[in-house]
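As the next step, I selected for study a record pairing a protein sequence with its backbone structure tokens, which the following lines show:
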Amino acid sequence: MTIAFLLMAGLTAFVLLVPTLMVAVLVSGLARREVSPETVDELVTEPVEVPAVA
């Protein structure tokens, strides 16, 4: 195997794996931000007025 072949194989693997890794990081970050009902109850401590829609 030549160095050019190894370089192209490594570059191809990098190009194919990096977008997959980026999507996995994005999805895991969104999943962590999901608010559970228990958290919402803890955040709202006093009554909140909702304006009427005209």
In short: The longest helix spans residues 3-33. The chain has a mean pLDDT of 80. The radius of gyration is 24 Å.
